[in-house]
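INFO worker-7 received task bundle
INFO bundle size: 2
INFO processing item 0
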Amino acid sequence: MDNATILVIEGKHADHPVFAPALRKKGFDVILASSGSEALNYLDEGYDPDVAVVNAASLRTSGKRICQSLQEKSASKLPIVLVHASGGKVAKAGAAVVLNLPFTVQKLVNRMKPYLPGDGKNTIHIGPIRLDVERRRVRCLGKQERLTPRLVRLLTILMQHHGEVVERKALFSEVWETNYTDDTRTLDVHISWLRRAIEEDPEKPKFLITVRGVGYRLDV
């Protein structure tokens, strides 16, 4: 459950509780949006949350329009938890779960659990990067990407040696299982693909660093 990605849409009105900080403390990767339009922008940018929490009470709205927009925008049917103020008749508005305030953060987590992905048997978790080797899926900074078997092998080696410089030829030899290491341009291409999967800005990588003339280092 750790590092599941939750899209939280909530305002900052003092008279209603907010949940983003508490969810982060519980180990979730939280994408915080202060409006429905901001949340839709995140989906447009390729973010793929597991669950959305629409804190309609903090936004002083019914949340109906936000829920409908999220359902229309998400490629897969995004499970939504809709939070309402106490009292009054509440419509589900397409949400999977509706909660009326007050309630604890733990109750919120318990109601989200059925919609959160389980990890495969072989999962590597270093810093913000979570690699599910079995399902060939990497999650980082709220994004989720499916990798080719070779990219999984490449990232696995870099994660196992995180903080260390892995020489280009050694990396190429191990990933491609060959002694021929004179042409490592293919490695460079795969590194660029990997950066697209884990970096916020692949052109200015913060995690997968090139050490000129030597190789690559994963900094997390």
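INFO item 0 finished
INFO processing item 1
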Amino acid sequence: MRGILKFPPDPAMKKSDRIEAFVENLGPSAGERADLDRHYLGYFQCFNEGLYYEAHDVLEHLWLKEKDTGNPDADFFKGLIQLAGAFVHLKKQYERPDHPKDGRRLRPATRLFRLAIGNLTPYGPHHLALDVPALVAFCEAKIAAIAGSEFAVNPWHPDRKPSLSLLPP
């Protein structure tokens, strides 16, 4: 990977063009695989760096192209996008817990975790090199931690960012 990941800052570029340029410039990710789309691989690279909004955008770009084509992976991608969205909420709540909007992001995060579980579960046990039951259990643990604290404790911390791994080929 080449330094910190950022979308090209050119405001004259359309968002889709900026995402394409971003994905093109991603460095080799762990075990880069020719059998997997670069947007999909980019999702994991961004997610693992704590760039959840970027992970969401990178995979959403692929999902938007695929969802109307009958691609059987569309709901799988949607579930991963929802997972990244949940972490956007957790990160924002952590960064500004007293903010009127950001301080109330734990419930929306749990809703997105639940939606992600619903979209990912049918693809188990393994799909596109991902251990689906392990990811579902991860989401369930986050829901339990948040709900168990009566939506008072955020399980996300920058020193303990989650990392998603793909199965070896």
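INFO item 1 finished
INFO post-check item 1: The longest helix spans residues 74-95.
INFO post-check item 1: DSSP finds six helices and two strands in the chain.
INFO worker-7 idle
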